[in-house]
Amino acid sequence: MSDGVPRALVASPTHAAQVAERELRDRYDWVAPDEADTIVALGGDGFMLQTLHAMLERRRIVPAFGMNLGTVGFLMNDWRLGGLDERLARAKPFRVSPLSMTATTIDGQTHQIPAINEVSLLRETRQTAKLAVTVNDRAVLPELVCDGILVATPAGSTAYNLSANGPILPLGSALLALTPISAFRPRRWRGAILPEKARITITVLEPEKRPVSAVADQREVRDVAQVEIAIDRMRGLTLMFDPEHALDDRITMEQFIA
Predict the structure, then answer these.
(1) pTM listed for this prediction
(2) Which secondary structure element, helix H or strand E, spans residue 123, and what is its range?
Protein backbone atom coordinates (compact mmCIF):
# COMPACT_ATOMS: atom_id res chain seq x y z
CA MET A 1 0.00 0.00 0.00
CA SER A 2 1.51 3.29 -1.07
CA ASP A 3 1.04 5.16 2.21
CA GLY A 4 1.52 2.16 4.49
CA VAL A 5 -1.87 2.60 6.20
CA PRO A 6 -4.30 -0.32 5.77
CA ARG A 7 -7.65 1.12 4.72
CA ALA A 8 -11.06 -0.31 3.90
CA LEU A 9 -13.60 0.92 1.37
CA VAL A 10 -17.36 0.84 1.94
CA ALA A 11 -20.09 2.29 -0.25
CA SER A 12 -23.82 2.90 -0.16
CA PRO A 13 -25.96 0.87 -2.59
CA THR A 14 -26.76 3.90 -4.78
CA HIS A 15 -25.63 3.79 -8.41
CA ALA A 16 -23.23 6.73 -8.07
CA ALA A 17 -21.55 5.27 -4.99
CA GLN A 18 -21.21 1.84 -6.58
CA VAL A 19 -19.58 3.28 -9.70
CA ALA A 20 -17.16 5.31 -7.56
CA GLU A 21 -16.34 2.22 -5.49
CA ARG A 22 -15.33 0.24 -8.59
CA GLU A 23 -13.10 3.10 -9.75
CA LEU A 24 -11.37 3.39 -6.38
CA ARG A 25 -10.85 -0.37 -6.04
CA ASP A 26 -9.11 -0.42 -9.42
CA ARG A 27 -6.74 2.40 -8.44
CA TYR A 28 -5.85 1.71 -4.77
CA ASP A 29 -5.21 -1.20 -2.42
CA TRP A 30 -7.79 -2.11 0.21
CA VAL A 31 -8.25 -4.49 3.15
CA ALA A 32 -11.33 -5.80 4.96
CA PRO A 33 -12.95 -3.41 7.47
CA ASP A 34 -11.85 -5.57 10.41
CA GLU A 35 -8.21 -5.21 9.29
CA ALA A 36 -8.26 -1.49 8.49
CA ASP A 37 -6.81 1.48 10.34
CA THR A 38 -8.94 3.87 8.26
CA ILE A 39 -12.39 3.56 6.66
CA VAL A 40 -13.21 5.38 3.42
CA ALA A 41 -16.99 5.69 3.04
CA LEU A 42 -18.79 6.62 -0.19
CA GLY A 43 -22.34 7.96 -0.01
CA GLY A 44 -24.26 10.58 1.90
CA ASP A 45 -24.68 11.56 5.54
CA GLY A 46 -27.06 8.68 6.21
CA PHE A 47 -24.54 6.16 4.97
CA MET A 48 -21.78 7.74 7.06
CA LEU A 49 -23.98 7.34 10.14
CA GLN A 50 -24.50 3.67 9.21
CA THR A 51 -20.74 3.23 8.85
CA LEU A 52 -20.04 4.79 12.25
CA HIS A 53 -22.74 2.71 13.92
CA ALA A 54 -21.30 -0.44 12.36
CA MET A 55 -17.95 0.37 13.95
CA LEU A 56 -19.60 0.87 17.33
CA GLU A 57 -21.32 -2.51 17.01
CA ARG A 58 -18.07 -4.27 15.98
CA ARG A 59 -16.23 -2.45 18.80
CA ARG A 60 -13.41 -1.70 16.37
CA ILE A 61 -13.34 2.07 15.97
CA VAL A 62 -11.00 3.67 13.43
CA PRO A 63 -11.01 7.10 11.72
CA ALA A 64 -13.55 7.51 8.90
CA PHE A 65 -13.04 9.63 5.78
CA GLY A 66 -16.23 10.14 3.77
CA MET A 67 -16.67 11.27 0.17
CA ASN A 68 -20.03 12.69 -0.79
CA LEU A 69 -22.05 10.83 -3.37
CA GLY A 70 -25.36 11.61 -1.71
CA THR A 71 -27.46 14.75 -1.31
CA VAL A 72 -26.27 17.05 1.47
CA GLY A 73 -22.98 15.46 2.53
CA PHE A 74 -22.53 17.55 5.64
CA LEU A 75 -20.37 14.85 7.23
CA MET A 76 -18.53 14.12 3.98
CA ASN A 77 -15.69 15.48 1.87
CA ASP A 78 -15.92 16.21 -1.84
CA TRP A 79 -15.77 13.22 -4.17
CA ARG A 80 -12.50 12.96 -6.11
CA LEU A 81 -10.89 9.88 -7.60
CA GLY A 82 -7.29 11.03 -7.55
CA GLY A 83 -4.94 12.04 -4.77
CA LEU A 84 -6.49 9.89 -2.06
CA ASP A 85 -3.17 9.12 -0.35
CA GLU A 86 -2.34 12.81 -0.04
CA ARG A 87 -5.84 13.70 1.16
CA LEU A 88 -5.75 11.09 3.92
CA ALA A 89 -2.28 12.23 5.00
CA ARG A 90 -3.44 15.87 5.24
CA ALA A 91 -6.91 15.20 6.66
CA LYS A 92 -7.92 17.01 9.84
CA PRO A 93 -9.34 14.64 12.50
CA PHE A 94 -12.33 15.57 14.59
CA ARG A 95 -13.48 13.52 17.57
CA VAL A 96 -17.21 12.98 18.07
CA SER A 97 -18.64 11.58 21.31
CA PRO A 98 -21.93 9.76 20.68
CA LEU A 99 -24.98 9.89 22.87
CA SER A 100 -26.13 6.79 24.70
CA MET A 101 -29.91 6.26 24.77
CA THR A 102 -31.42 3.89 27.30
CA ALA A 103 -35.09 3.44 26.44
CA THR A 104 -37.51 1.51 28.66
CA THR A 105 -40.74 0.41 27.02
CA ILE A 106 -44.22 0.18 28.54
CA ASP A 107 -43.77 -3.58 28.98
CA GLY A 108 -40.47 -3.15 30.81
CA GLN A 109 -37.98 -3.98 28.06
CA THR A 110 -34.75 -1.95 28.00
CA HIS A 111 -32.86 -0.94 24.84
CA GLN A 112 -29.47 0.80 24.92
CA ILE A 113 -28.56 2.39 21.56
CA PRO A 114 -25.88 4.94 20.60
CA ALA A 115 -26.71 8.10 18.63
CA ILE A 116 -24.19 10.26 16.80
CA ASN A 117 -26.56 13.04 15.67
CA GLU A 118 -29.55 13.03 17.99
CA VAL A 119 -32.06 11.15 20.10
CA SER A 120 -35.64 12.14 19.35
CA LEU A 121 -38.95 11.24 20.96
CA LEU A 122 -41.99 11.43 18.68
CA ARG A 123 -45.71 10.88 19.12
CA GLU A 124 -46.97 7.71 17.42
CA THR A 125 -50.59 8.78 16.87
CA ARG A 126 -52.60 11.93 16.31
CA GLN A 127 -52.67 12.45 20.07
CA THR A 128 -50.06 14.93 21.27
CA ALA A 129 -47.36 13.58 23.54
CA LYS A 130 -47.15 14.55 27.20
CA LEU A 131 -43.60 14.42 28.53
CA ALA A 132 -41.81 15.23 31.78
CA VAL A 133 -38.18 16.33 31.48
CA THR A 134 -35.52 15.91 34.17
CA VAL A 135 -31.92 17.17 33.96
CA ASN A 136 -29.40 15.78 36.45
CA ASP A 137 -32.27 14.47 38.62
CA ARG A 138 -33.89 17.90 38.76
CA ALA A 139 -37.39 18.27 37.27
CA VAL A 140 -37.18 21.14 34.78
CA LEU A 141 -40.42 20.57 32.84
CA PRO A 142 -43.16 18.73 34.77
CA GLU A 143 -45.33 18.58 31.67
CA LEU A 144 -44.45 19.33 28.04
CA VAL A 145 -47.29 18.89 25.55
CA CYS A 146 -45.82 18.54 22.07
CA ASP A 147 -45.24 16.43 18.99
CA GLY A 148 -41.88 15.41 20.47
CA ILE A 149 -38.50 16.48 21.75
CA LEU A 150 -34.90 15.81 20.78
CA VAL A 151 -31.39 15.95 22.20
CA ALA A 152 -28.69 16.80 19.63
CA THR A 153 -24.90 16.76 19.71
CA PRO A 154 -22.88 19.57 18.09
CA ALA A 155 -22.25 17.31 15.08
CA GLY A 156 -25.99 16.67 14.77
CA SER A 157 -27.15 20.19 15.58
CA THR A 158 -27.42 21.11 11.88
CA ALA A 159 -29.58 18.06 11.07
CA TYR A 160 -33.05 17.35 12.51
CA ASN A 161 -32.36 19.78 15.37
CA LEU A 162 -31.95 22.71 12.96
CA SER A 163 -35.15 21.75 11.12
CA ALA A 164 -36.95 21.90 14.48
CA ASN A 165 -35.58 25.45 15.01
CA GLY A 166 -32.95 24.30 17.47
CA PRO A 167 -29.61 26.09 17.91
CA ILE A 168 -26.46 25.38 15.93
CA LEU A 169 -23.74 24.27 18.35
CA PRO A 170 -20.07 24.88 17.52
CA LEU A 171 -17.91 21.79 17.57
CA GLY A 172 -15.78 21.61 20.68
CA SER A 173 -18.40 23.57 22.63
CA ALA A 174 -19.13 20.60 24.96
CA LEU A 175 -22.84 21.42 24.73
CA LEU A 176 -26.07 19.61 23.91
CA ALA A 177 -29.25 21.03 22.40
CA LEU A 178 -32.58 20.13 24.00
CA THR A 179 -35.19 21.10 21.41
CA PRO A 180 -38.99 20.69 21.43
CA ILE A 181 -40.85 19.60 18.32
CA SER A 182 -44.05 21.63 17.84
CA ALA A 183 -44.49 22.48 21.52
CA PHE A 184 -48.12 23.26 22.42
CA ARG A 185 -47.66 23.85 26.15
CA PRO A 186 -45.66 25.68 27.41
CA ARG A 187 -46.10 27.34 24.04
CA ARG A 188 -43.27 29.84 24.44
CA TRP A 189 -40.62 27.29 25.41
CA ARG A 190 -38.07 27.09 22.61
CA GLY A 191 -35.64 24.62 24.17
CA ALA A 192 -32.40 24.76 26.12
CA ILE A 193 -28.64 24.49 25.69
CA LEU A 194 -27.12 22.11 28.24
CA PRO A 195 -23.57 21.18 29.22
CA GLU A 196 -22.31 18.00 27.61
CA LYS A 197 -22.11 16.27 31.00
CA ALA A 198 -25.87 16.66 31.58
CA ARG A 199 -27.95 13.56 32.18
CA ILE A 200 -31.40 13.94 30.64
CA THR A 201 -34.39 11.79 31.54
CA ILE A 202 -37.65 12.06 29.60
CA THR A 203 -40.70 10.33 31.06
CA VAL A 204 -43.78 9.73 28.94
CA LEU A 205 -46.97 10.76 30.73
CA GLU A 206 -50.02 8.66 29.82
CA PRO A 207 -47.85 6.34 27.67
CA GLU A 208 -50.68 3.96 26.75
CA LYS A 209 -53.14 6.69 25.80
CA ARG A 210 -50.46 8.85 24.12
CA PRO A 211 -47.81 6.41 22.79
CA VAL A 212 -44.34 7.73 21.99
CA SER A 213 -41.41 6.26 20.07
CA ALA A 214 -37.73 6.99 20.67
CA VAL A 215 -35.27 7.18 17.78
CA ALA A 216 -31.47 7.11 18.14
CA ASP A 217 -30.30 8.39 14.74
CA GLN A 218 -32.02 5.79 12.54
CA ARG A 219 -32.98 3.12 15.10
CA GLU A 220 -36.45 3.27 16.62
CA VAL A 221 -37.92 1.87 19.84
CA ARG A 222 -41.71 2.11 19.99
CA ASP A 223 -44.04 2.52 22.97
CA VAL A 224 -41.45 3.90 25.38
CA ALA A 225 -42.21 4.81 28.98
CA GLN A 226 -38.91 6.51 29.82
CA VAL A 227 -35.72 7.49 28.00
CA GLU A 228 -32.38 8.34 29.58
CA ILE A 229 -29.79 10.21 27.48
CA ALA A 230 -26.16 11.00 28.23
CA ILE A 231 -22.85 11.37 26.39
CA ASP A 232 -20.88 8.13 26.06
CA ARG A 233 -17.31 9.24 26.69
CA MET A 234 -15.96 5.69 26.41
CA ARG A 235 -16.63 5.33 22.68
CA GLY A 236 -15.34 8.37 20.81
CA LEU A 237 -15.45 8.39 17.01
CA THR A 238 -13.06 10.20 14.65
CA LEU A 239 -14.17 11.84 11.40
CA MET A 240 -11.52 13.05 8.96
CA PHE A 241 -11.91 16.11 6.75
CA ASP A 242 -9.91 17.88 4.09
CA PRO A 243 -8.40 20.98 5.77
CA GLU A 244 -10.38 23.31 3.49
CA HIS A 245 -13.68 21.55 4.29
CA ALA A 246 -13.41 20.92 8.03
CA LEU A 247 -16.64 20.18 9.86
CA ASP A 248 -16.20 23.01 12.34
CA ASP A 249 -15.96 25.49 9.45
CA ARG A 250 -19.13 24.06 7.91
CA ILE A 251 -21.05 24.44 11.16
CA THR A 252 -19.87 28.05 11.51
CA MET A 253 -20.92 28.95 7.98
CA GLU A 254 -24.30 27.21 8.32
CA GLN A 255 -25.33 29.99 10.71
CA PHE A 256 -25.10 32.56 7.88
CA ILE A 257 -27.28 30.68 5.39
CA ALA A 258 -30.66 32.33 4.97
Answers:
(1) 0.83
(2) strand 118-123
